[in-house]
Automatic annotation (TrEMBL):
The lineage of its organism: Bacteria, Bacillati, Actinomycetota, Coriobacteriia, Eggerthellales. It comes from Ellagibacter isourolithinifaciens. Belongs to the bacterial sugar transferase family. Residues 7-188 form the Bacterial sugar transferase domain. Keywords: Membrane, Transferase, Transmembrane, Transmembrane helix. It holds the Pfam family Bac_transf. It comes from the Bacteria. One of its GO terms (molecular function) is phosphotransferase activity, for other substituted phosphate groups. The chain crosses the membrane at residues 12-35. This is Sugar transferase.
Amino acid sequence: MYLRFGKRVCDIVIGLIALPFVLIIVAICAPLIYFEDKGPIFYNAPRVGKDGRDFTMYKLRSMKVNAPDLVMEDGSTYNGADDPRMTRIGAFMRKASIDEMPQFINVLKGDMSVVGPRPDLRRETELYEGDDGEKLLVKPGITGYAAVYGRNSLPWRDRLKLDVYYVRHVSFALDVKVFFRTFYVIFKQDGVYVEPEDGDVKEASN
């Protein structure tokens, strides 16, 4: 009952409450993003959502225009503290997680949920193994179980296992726990960036 009805109601309520804060953050960050390199304010990120459907995830742009797609050895997207692709304002937004705020619009549209597995790129879903694809049985989230219990400090495949755990145990109580732990994780700045070893990062092939 919660997964089919209650979760959507919670998403709409939280999305509407968050919307004014989203608009304020966009109003403050937009000129800083634009004047740093005269590029677009938003990055419309292609992602894979529930049931394997493609959707556009909205983000404030944190990287330089036409930045290459860097990947880890396991095929996941690189996200390091020394990422040369990030702009100065982008590094701050990424660390504070405010680049993700426009995703509340995705929540109101129904593409995403407030809590759920973080969405992957299409090329990443093609690397799923075993039960990994179960994460696509629910809507992706702005925050999620794997996002607050390890975040980017965990290897990608370990995060996938946590995503599958969430899908198999989703409940109102678990969502509340993840939601409030998100503030704790952001405040402590735990696991914001991945720590790759030499040679682990390469440019994705087209």
